[in-house]
Amino acid sequence: SGSLFVVATPIGNLGDLSPRALETLKRVAAICAEDTRHTRQLLAHFGVERPLIALHEHNEDEIAERLVARLLAGESLALVSDAGTPLVSDPGFRLVRAARAAGVPVSPVPGPSALIAALSVAGMPSDRFVFEGFLPAKATARRERLSALAGETRTLVFYESAHRIEDALADAVAAFGAQRPATIARELTKLFETVLDGTLEDLRARVAADPNQRKGEFVLLVHGAGEDADAKVADGRRLYAKLSEHLP
Ligand code: SAM
């Protein structure tokens, strides 16, 4: 049979497409893409002319069957998403599962992912971390999810979009406490790349005050709950209690 290559593409800067990714995209019989218009632009930039097949959440199961038949017949295919690594908060898992179940070799062509890029510059413990992907869109579900994570000791990583970053930060302050250290990695590898850190309340206030900080794509990292964090909160409370004895 042929192989299915799972190919990472840039998360902004086109210079991040690897030579092997390019070579693979040129060589396969067809490229399965989340949004064919978006991928066609990327391919045009690199002079790749290969047939595109649309693969999104809604048609993945039925299309996977046909694609596996092509793979078994000897064609090699590539899978890409709009940006970064397929299957990471992106479609592809059903196709990969079907290909593996059919005994088709599935091979990664690794490269950019916003998750790893953000973790690599946040300066937070990264030996262990939890990737939570996108938070629920509805406020109640989002708050429940966050409060369930309040005791998590590993670094927490979330994906967020421009129109929800403000709400997400406000809910994170409520769930994790104003003083929990956090980092926002925005527009990584792009013109307006910005990495902000501070307490959750600092970040919430800065994003609320500056509309420019609400534009683009975001990764939100929250420091895990730890003895350190808890001890600092307790210290702060003790100090406040002492000071407030002297307040009118
Ligand atoms: N598969 C992609 C990856 O490997 O990173 C993620 C796809 S997910 C649908 C899109 C989300 O990834 C955005 O909403 C944002 O949270 C994050 N993201 C993608 N590109 C980014 C960038 N350049 N800077 C910051 N976050 C980014």
Care to describe what's here?
The chain has 248 residues and is of the alpha/beta class. It has helices at residues 19-27, 36-45, 60-72, 93-101, 114-122, 139-148, 165-176, 200-209, 227-245; strands spanning 4-7, 30-33, 52-54, 77-79, 106-109, 129-134, 155-161, 181-186, 194-199, 217-222. The longest helix is centred in the C-terminal third of the chain and has 19 residues, at 227-245. The radius of gyration is 22 Å and the shape is elongated. The termini are far apart. The mean pLDDT is 94. The structure holds S-adenosylmethionine. Residues 11-12, 81, 83-85, 88-90, 113-115, 159-161, 185-190, 217-219 line the site of S-adenosylmethionine. One of its GO terms (molecular function) is methyltransferase activity. Belongs to the methyltransferase superfamily. RsmI family. This is Ribosomal RNA small subunit methyltransferase I.
Radius of gyration: 22 Å
How far is it from the N-terminal to the C-terminal residue, by CA? 80 Å
> Strands of the biggest beta sheet: in what spatial order?
3-2-4-1-5
Largest sheet: 5 strands, parallel
What is bound: which ligands? S-adenosylmethionine
Q: What is the share of helical residues?
A: 40-55%
Shape: elongated
Q: Count of helical segments?
A: 9
Series of H and E elements: EHEHEHEHEHEHEHEEHEH
Compute the number of strand runs.
10
Unreliable stretches covering 5 or more consecutive residues: none
Structural class: alpha/beta
